[in-house]
Protein backbone atom coordinates (compact mmCIF):
# COMPACT_ATOMS: atom_id res chain seq x y z
CA UNK A 1 0.00 0.00 0.00
CA UNK A 2 3.03 2.29 -0.26
CA UNK A 3 1.48 4.12 -3.22
CA UNK A 4 -1.97 4.48 -1.60
CA UNK A 5 -3.09 7.63 0.19
CA UNK A 6 -6.07 9.11 2.03
CA UNK A 7 -7.13 12.69 1.34
CA UNK A 8 -9.68 14.38 3.62
CA UNK A 9 -11.21 17.78 2.93
CA UNK A 10 -13.43 20.12 4.95
CA UNK A 11 -14.43 23.47 3.43
CA UNK A 12 -17.31 25.79 2.61
CA UNK A 13 -19.71 24.23 0.12
CA UNK A 14 -19.36 25.51 -3.44
CA UNK A 15 -19.88 24.09 -6.96
CA UNK A 16 -16.77 22.57 -8.53
CA UNK A 17 -14.96 21.20 -5.50
CA UNK A 18 -15.28 17.53 -6.49
CA UNK A 19 -14.26 18.40 -10.05
CA UNK A 20 -11.16 20.21 -8.77
CA UNK A 21 -10.10 17.34 -6.51
CA UNK A 22 -10.66 14.60 -9.08
CA UNK A 23 -8.88 16.72 -11.67
CA UNK A 24 -5.89 17.03 -9.37
CA UNK A 25 -5.82 13.25 -8.92
CA UNK A 26 -6.07 12.67 -12.68
CA UNK A 27 -3.22 15.10 -13.32
CA UNK A 28 -1.10 13.10 -10.86
CA UNK A 29 -1.89 9.74 -12.48
CA UNK A 30 -3.92 8.60 -9.46
CA UNK A 31 -6.83 6.16 -9.46
CA UNK A 32 -9.67 6.50 -6.93
CA UNK A 33 -10.30 3.33 -4.92
CA UNK A 34 -13.02 4.70 -2.66
CA UNK A 35 -14.62 8.09 -2.13
CA UNK A 36 -17.20 9.46 0.27
CA UNK A 37 -18.48 13.01 0.44
CA UNK A 38 -21.25 14.95 2.12
CA UNK A 39 -22.60 18.44 1.66
CA UNK A 40 -24.29 19.88 4.74
CA UNK A 41 -26.89 22.08 3.06
CA UNK A 42 -27.94 23.73 6.31
CA UNK A 43 -24.40 24.67 7.37
CA UNK A 44 -23.24 25.05 3.75
CA UNK A 45 -20.16 22.95 4.52
CA UNK A 46 -18.58 20.25 2.36
CA UNK A 47 -16.75 17.13 3.57
CA UNK A 48 -14.85 14.57 1.49
CA UNK A 49 -12.58 11.54 1.96
CA UNK A 50 -10.77 9.95 -0.99
CA UNK A 51 -8.73 6.75 -0.94
CA UNK A 52 -6.55 6.69 -4.04
CA UNK A 53 -3.54 4.89 -5.49
CA UNK A 54 -0.73 6.26 -7.63
CA UNK A 55 -0.29 4.92 -11.16
CA UNK A 56 2.96 4.65 -13.06
CA UNK A 57 4.00 8.08 -11.82
CA UNK A 58 4.60 7.31 -8.15
CA UNK A 59 4.55 10.70 -6.44
CA UNK A 60 5.82 10.79 -2.86
CA UNK A 61 3.54 11.90 -0.03
CA UNK A 62 5.39 15.20 0.24
CA UNK A 63 5.09 15.82 -3.51
CA UNK A 64 1.36 15.12 -3.41
CA UNK A 65 0.94 17.51 -0.47
CA UNK A 66 3.03 20.18 -2.14
CA UNK A 67 1.01 20.04 -5.34
CA UNK A 68 -2.36 19.94 -3.54
CA UNK A 69 -1.58 22.94 -1.35
CA UNK A 70 -2.37 25.64 -3.99
CA UNK A 71 -5.73 24.00 -4.72
CA UNK A 72 -6.50 23.86 -0.99
CA UNK A 73 -5.67 27.54 -0.62
CA UNK A 74 -7.97 28.43 -3.50
CA UNK A 75 -10.92 26.73 -1.82
CA UNK A 76 -9.84 27.57 1.79
CA UNK A 77 -9.77 23.89 2.70
CA UNK A 78 -8.97 22.26 6.01
CA UNK A 79 -7.28 19.13 4.66
CA UNK A 80 -4.97 16.22 5.34
CA UNK A 81 -3.17 13.84 2.99
CA UNK A 82 -1.68 10.74 4.61
CA UNK A 83 -0.34 7.38 3.44
CA UNK A 84 -3.00 4.68 3.61
CA UNK A 85 -2.53 2.27 6.51
CA UNK A 86 -0.04 4.40 8.43
CA UNK A 87 -0.19 3.46 12.10
CA UNK A 88 -0.88 6.42 14.39
CA UNK A 89 1.18 6.78 17.56
CA UNK A 90 -1.28 6.40 20.44
CA UNK A 91 -0.95 6.94 24.18
CA UNK A 92 -3.59 5.26 26.35
CA UNK A 93 -4.60 6.54 29.79
CA UNK A 94 -6.38 4.28 32.26
CA UNK A 95 -7.28 4.04 35.94
CA UNK A 96 -8.57 0.86 37.59
CA UNK A 97 -11.09 -0.46 35.03
CA UNK A 98 -9.08 -2.30 32.37
CA UNK A 99 -11.64 -3.60 29.86
CA UNK A 100 -11.16 -0.83 27.28
CA UNK A 101 -7.38 -0.90 27.70
CA UNK A 102 -7.27 -4.67 27.22
CA UNK A 103 -9.43 -4.44 24.10
CA UNK A 104 -7.19 -1.77 22.56
CA UNK A 105 -3.99 -3.64 23.44
CA UNK A 106 -5.27 -6.85 21.86
CA UNK A 107 -6.48 -5.15 18.68
CA UNK A 108 -3.28 -3.17 18.30
CA UNK A 109 -1.21 -6.33 18.77
CA UNK A 110 -3.20 -8.30 16.18
CA UNK A 111 -3.23 -5.45 13.66
CA UNK A 112 -6.99 -4.98 13.84
CA UNK A 113 -6.50 -1.29 14.64
CA UNK A 114 -4.10 0.91 12.63
CA UNK A 115 -2.30 2.09 15.76
CA UNK A 116 0.99 1.76 17.56
CA UNK A 117 0.42 2.09 21.28
CA UNK A 118 3.64 3.79 22.35
CA UNK A 119 2.83 4.13 26.06
CA UNK A 120 0.21 3.63 28.75
CA UNK A 121 -0.19 6.18 31.53
CA UNK A 122 -2.12 5.45 34.72
CA UNK A 123 -2.69 6.95 38.12
CA UNK A 124 -2.68 3.38 39.49
CA UNK A 125 -0.44 0.34 39.01
CA UNK A 126 -3.20 -2.26 38.52
CA UNK A 127 -2.42 -2.85 34.83
CA UNK A 128 1.35 -2.43 34.84
CA UNK A 129 2.12 -6.13 34.34
CA UNK A 130 -0.39 -6.44 31.48
CA UNK A 131 1.08 -3.45 29.68
CA UNK A 132 4.66 -4.63 30.13
CA UNK A 133 3.67 -8.09 28.82
CA UNK A 134 2.78 -6.29 25.59
CA UNK A 135 6.28 -4.71 25.65
CA UNK A 136 4.81 -1.23 25.97
CA UNK A 137 6.23 1.41 28.32
CA UNK A 138 4.09 2.00 31.43
CA UNK A 139 4.13 5.31 33.28
CA UNK A 140 2.68 5.48 36.78
CA UNK A 141 1.61 9.10 37.36
CA UNK A 142 -0.40 9.30 40.59
CA UNK A 143 -2.42 12.46 41.01
CA UNK A 144 -3.95 14.47 43.83
CA UNK A 145 -5.51 17.91 43.84
CA UNK A 146 -2.18 19.36 44.92
CA UNK A 147 0.01 17.44 42.44
CA UNK A 148 -2.32 17.70 39.42
CA UNK A 149 -0.36 20.53 37.68
CA UNK A 150 2.92 18.64 38.02
CA UNK A 151 1.35 15.36 36.90
CA UNK A 152 -0.22 16.94 33.82
CA UNK A 153 3.04 18.69 32.94
CA UNK A 154 4.80 15.32 33.01
CA UNK A 155 2.06 13.86 30.81
CA UNK A 156 2.64 16.56 28.21
CA UNK A 157 6.37 15.82 28.32
CA UNK A 158 5.65 12.16 27.55
CA UNK A 159 3.33 13.15 24.70
CA UNK A 160 6.08 15.32 23.19
CA UNK A 161 8.93 12.86 23.81
CA UNK A 162 7.06 9.98 22.14
CA UNK A 163 5.57 12.03 19.26
CA UNK A 164 2.08 10.99 20.33
CA UNK A 165 -0.61 11.71 17.73
CA UNK A 166 -3.66 10.55 19.71
CA UNK A 167 -4.41 10.27 23.44
CA UNK A 168 -7.12 7.78 24.39
CA UNK A 169 -8.80 7.99 27.78
CA UNK A 170 -9.73 4.33 28.28
CA UNK A 171 -11.75 4.80 31.47
CA UNK A 172 -9.25 7.26 32.94
CA UNK A 173 -11.17 8.46 35.97
CA UNK A 174 -9.56 11.86 36.41
CA UNK A 175 -10.91 15.12 35.02
CA UNK A 176 -8.38 16.85 32.79
CA UNK A 177 -7.72 20.49 33.57
CA UNK A 178 -8.98 23.14 31.15
CA UNK A 179 -5.41 23.95 30.20
CA UNK A 180 -4.53 20.34 29.38
CA UNK A 181 -7.80 19.82 27.51
CA UNK A 182 -7.07 22.89 25.39
CA UNK A 183 -3.57 21.65 24.52
CA UNK A 184 -4.91 18.22 23.53
CA UNK A 185 -8.00 19.43 21.65
CA UNK A 186 -8.65 17.37 18.55
CA UNK A 187 -6.19 14.64 19.56
CA UNK A 188 -7.88 13.16 22.65
CA UNK A 189 -10.78 10.69 22.72
CA UNK A 190 -12.75 9.80 25.86
CA UNK A 191 -15.32 7.11 26.62
CA UNK A 192 -18.20 7.32 29.09
CA UNK A 193 -21.48 5.61 29.77
CA UNK A 194 -24.41 7.20 27.95
CA UNK A 195 -26.44 7.63 31.13
CA UNK A 196 -24.88 11.04 31.60
CA UNK A 197 -26.17 13.43 32.77
CA UNK A 198 -28.95 11.35 34.37
CA UNK A 199 -26.65 9.14 36.40
CA UNK A 200 -23.58 11.10 37.41
CA UNK A 201 -21.09 10.20 40.10
CA UNK A 202 -20.26 6.81 41.56
CA UNK A 203 -21.80 3.56 40.35
CA UNK A 204 -23.89 4.88 37.44
CA UNK A 205 -24.98 1.38 36.43
CA UNK A 206 -26.29 0.71 39.92
CA UNK A 207 -28.21 3.99 39.75
CA UNK A 208 -29.58 2.90 36.39
CA UNK A 209 -30.64 -0.45 37.87
CA UNK A 210 -32.55 1.34 40.61
CA UNK A 211 -34.42 3.31 37.91
CA UNK A 212 -35.19 0.23 35.81
CA UNK A 213 -33.50 1.37 32.62
CA UNK A 214 -34.31 -0.40 29.34
CA UNK A 215 -31.11 0.40 27.44
CA UNK A 216 -27.43 0.52 28.31
CA UNK A 217 -25.08 2.58 26.21
CA UNK A 218 -21.73 4.30 25.81
CA UNK A 219 -20.45 7.37 24.01
CA UNK A 220 -16.96 8.06 22.64
CA UNK A 221 -16.18 11.72 22.00
CA UNK A 222 -13.39 14.20 21.56
CA UNK A 223 -12.25 15.99 24.69
CA UNK A 224 -12.67 19.71 25.12
CA UNK A 225 -12.88 22.09 28.08
CA UNK A 226 -16.53 21.13 28.73
CA UNK A 227 -16.58 17.83 30.61
CA UNK A 228 -18.05 15.04 28.46
CA UNK A 229 -19.49 17.53 25.97
CA UNK A 230 -16.95 17.36 23.14
CA UNK A 231 -17.93 16.32 19.59
CA UNK A 232 -19.52 12.87 19.63
CA UNK A 233 -17.82 10.20 17.49
CA UNK A 234 -19.39 6.84 18.26
CA UNK A 235 -22.28 5.53 20.35
CA UNK A 236 -23.44 2.04 21.27
CA UNK A 237 -26.83 1.08 22.71
CA UNK A 238 -27.80 -2.37 24.00
CA UNK A 239 -31.34 -3.36 25.05
CA UNK A 240 -31.79 -4.69 28.59
CA UNK A 241 -34.80 -5.59 30.70
CA UNK A 242 -35.98 -6.28 34.24
CA UNK A 243 -34.09 -9.59 34.42
CA UNK A 244 -30.70 -7.82 34.40
CA UNK A 245 -29.05 -7.33 37.76
CA UNK A 246 -26.88 -4.31 38.49
CA UNK A 247 -23.82 -6.49 37.88
CA UNK A 248 -25.29 -7.59 34.52
CA UNK A 249 -25.68 -3.94 33.54
CA UNK A 250 -22.04 -3.28 34.44
CA UNK A 251 -20.92 -6.09 32.14
CA UNK A 252 -23.17 -5.03 29.28
CA UNK A 253 -21.96 -1.48 29.76
CA UNK A 254 -18.35 -2.60 29.49
CA UNK A 255 -19.09 -4.28 26.17
CA UNK A 256 -20.73 -1.09 24.90
CA UNK A 257 -17.80 1.04 26.09
CA UNK A 258 -15.24 -1.18 24.34
CA UNK A 259 -17.18 -1.16 21.08
CA UNK A 260 -17.77 2.60 21.05
CA UNK A 261 -14.16 3.41 21.93
CA UNK A 262 -12.60 1.03 19.40
CA UNK A 263 -14.82 2.45 16.65
CA UNK A 264 -13.82 5.99 17.55
CA UNK A 265 -10.12 5.14 17.56
CA UNK A 266 -10.41 3.25 14.26
CA UNK A 267 -12.30 6.03 12.48
CA UNK A 268 -9.93 8.70 13.78
CA UNK A 269 -6.84 6.80 12.68
CA UNK A 270 -8.33 5.96 9.29
CA UNK A 271 -9.08 9.61 8.62
CA UNK A 272 -12.84 9.14 8.59
CA UNK A 273 -13.75 11.85 11.11
CA UNK A 274 -14.19 15.48 10.10
CA UNK A 275 -15.05 17.95 12.87
CA UNK A 276 -17.23 20.99 12.27
CA UNK A 277 -18.04 23.05 15.34
CA UNK A 278 -19.25 20.63 18.02
CA UNK A 279 -20.35 18.01 15.48
CA UNK A 280 -18.56 15.27 13.61
CA UNK A 281 -19.07 13.90 10.12
CA UNK A 282 -18.02 10.24 9.89
CA UNK A 283 -17.27 9.20 6.29
CA UNK A 284 -17.40 5.39 6.48
Please write out the topology.
Layout (H helix, E strand, L loop, with lengths): L3 E9 L4 H11 L2 E11 L4 E10 L6 H15 L2 E6 L4 E7 L4 H12 L4 E8 L5 H6 L4 E3 L7 H14 L4 E4 L8 H6 L4 E6 L10 H8 L3 E8 L9 E8 L6 H24 L3 E4 L2 E4 L2
Parallel strand pairs: 5-6, 5-8, 6-7, 8-9
Antiparallel strand pairs: 1-3, 1-4, 2-3, 9-10, 10-11, 12-13
Low-confidence stretches: none
Structural class: alpha/beta
Distance between the termini: 19 Å
Q: How much strand content do the residues show?
A: 25-35%
Outline: globular
Helix content: 25-40%
Could you tell me the mean pLDDT? 94
Task: State the total count of DSSP E strands.
Answer: 13
Strand order of the largest sheet: 7-6-5-8-9-10-11
What is the assembly state of the chains in this entry? single chain
The H-and-E topology, N to C, reads as EHEEHEEHEHEHEHEHEEHEE
User: Using only CA atoms, what is the Rg?
Assistant: 21 Å
Largest sheet: 7 strands, mixed
* Count, helices: 8
Structural features, described:
The chain is α/β, with parallel strands linked by helices and 284 residues long. 34% of the residues lie in helices and 31% in strands. It has eight helices and 13 strands. Strands 7-6-5-8-9-10-11 form a seven-stranded mixed sheet. Strands 2-3-1-4 form a four-stranded antiparallel sheet, covered by helices on one side. Strands 12-13 form a two-stranded antiparallel sheet. The longest helix has 24 residues, at 246-269. The radius of gyration is 21 Å and the shape is globular. The mean pLDDT is 94.
